[in-house]
Design a protein that fits this description.
mainly beta, Immunoglobulin-like, 9-stranded mixed β-sheet, 2 helices, 37 strands, about 55% strand, globular
């Protein structure tokens, strides 16, 4: 079937352009018709109740707007926007959007140059990109940011700093810019991933994550053996070696007589978890945790130790015993230390087989993320230098980490694995 195209026409709502000529008294103001088609690459039909919108902005001021229901039509959507004709060549931007009734939107910006004396200006097809419809979380190497939709752009949150960014024209994707603490900020979303700019700082490509970061916690004990995993408000208790499990939702934490308490609400399996500040030594696992934990069910009362994933990393430095398949070499112990408090992390560094090194780390949804490492530039033997390169290859980007039964830390990265102990 031949593709149907149609045009919206609506009387303009406008303010005077700064360079618009003044018509003679009693004569209509000269107008220019901006024509365009709105489209997007996703094969998603516009549902009933959708609207199409175009806005012309010159020197930061809205001078013309057109918004109409799509009334069952599908992209490409033809639009005609009547705007005041300029007396001299004028530049601005055309902001376009297709909005769904559930709040989702596809948006785009096209730079516009309007010459004087032209009655019609064709802008062709404006390809729209999906706008952030709700708070979206991105991991940019060790950094992670939250982008929230706002009028004309987004609000970006990084390490407790919040800055408003406005959408600006981009050849592809959706680009936002603004002035934040310390430097200009930019955020360019393309195909689900994004690029983050902060002054002259270069960040790895940002990966979009599903859902908000979920706080995680693990506690364990012995006699009988048990493990409790908490992700947000979801708790799962595993009892004994037979693999018996109990799952329940937990309410928010509250303080009570020097401890933190979480309980399941009515309608859920009865589960009570008490957290008391540590340190708590698990002698059977040869590990020290941040807190003492007491778990109460209708059938048992269990005592043990627990902490968040990041709390088990921070504190005293780790001594690296193995890099890849080889014992760690060097004139001094090879070390790794995580500084900071909470999932936003902080500095990471230590002594390599030859040089000292430093970078940044964060923990998002239980996944350890490391920034590119910087090191001193000392020269050592070939064996030490080769092993140091292997160490830096392991400590790169998003890495897997786990703890062995005897408390050793294992990190598995793109370049292999390492083993460290305290």
């Amino acid at each position: 079937m031949q593709r149907q195209r149609w045009l919206f026409a609506l009387g303009p709502l406008f303010l005077a352009l700064p360079a618009v000529g003044q018509p003679a008294l009693g004569q209509p103001a000269p107008m220019v018709a901006l024509t365009m088609e709105l489209a997007y690459r996703e094969r998603i039909a516009l549902p009933p109740g959708s609207t199409a919108e175009v806005v012309l902005v010159v020197e930061g001021r809205e001078v013309a707007r057109l918004a109409r229901p799509t009334e069952g039509h599908q992209p490409p959507i033809g639009m005609r926007l009547d705007a005041p004709a300029p007396a001299a060549e004028t530049s601005g931007e055309l902001r376009a959007a297709l909005r769904f009734p559930d709040g989702a939107a596809w948006t785009g910006i096209r730079a516009v140059t309007m010459p004087p004396g032209q009655a019609e200006l064709s802008l062709g097809v404006i390809t729209l990109r999906r706008q952030v419809a709700e708070a979206a979380h991105f991991a940019c190497g060790a950094e992670h940011v939250v982008a929230t939709p706002a009028a004309g752009g987004i609000t970006l949150l990084r390490r407790g700093e919040e800055i408003s960014l406005r959408q600006v024209p981009a050849a592809s994707g959706a680009r936002y810019e603004g002035e934040g603490p310390g430097a200009p900020w930019s955020f360019h979303e393309r195909g689900g991933n994004a690029l983050l700019g902060l002054g002259g700082t270069q960040f790895p490509e940002c990966e979009r994550l599903d859902g908000p970061p979920v706080p995680r916690y693990r506690a364990q004990g012995h006699e009988p053996s048990w493990v409790l995993d908490i992700a947000g408000d979801a708790a799962r208790l595993r009892l004994g070696f037979e693999g018996q499990e109990m799952a329940a939702r937990l309410g928010p934490a509250r303080a009570q007589e020097g401890l933190r308490l979480r309980e399941s609400p009515p309608g859920e399996p009865a589960l009570r978890v008490e957290f008391r500040p540590g340190p708590c030594a698990d002698t059977m696992a040869d590990m020290t945790f941040a807190e003492h934990v007491r778990v109460v069910t209708p059938d048992a009362t269990l005592a043990g130790c627990g902490s968040t994933p990041e709390a088990r990393l921070t504190g005293d430095p780790w001594t690296i015993e193995r890099i890849g398949d080889m014992e760690a070499q060097g004139h001094r112990p090879v070390t790794l230390r995580f500084e900071g408090d909470g999932p936003e992390g902080g500095a990471v560094g230590g002594q390599g087989p030859c040089n000292t090194y430093r970078g940044e780390w964060s923990m998002l949804d239980g996944t350890l993320r490391l920034s590119p490492l910087a090191s001193t530039m000392m020269a050592c033997g070939d064996a030490e230098m080769a092993q140091e390169r292997a160490l830096f290859d392991i400590l790169a980007g998003r890495v897997a980490h786990r703890f062995t039964e005897d408390g050793a830390l294992v990190i598995e990265g793109p370049g292999g694995s390492l083993l460290a102990r305290r």
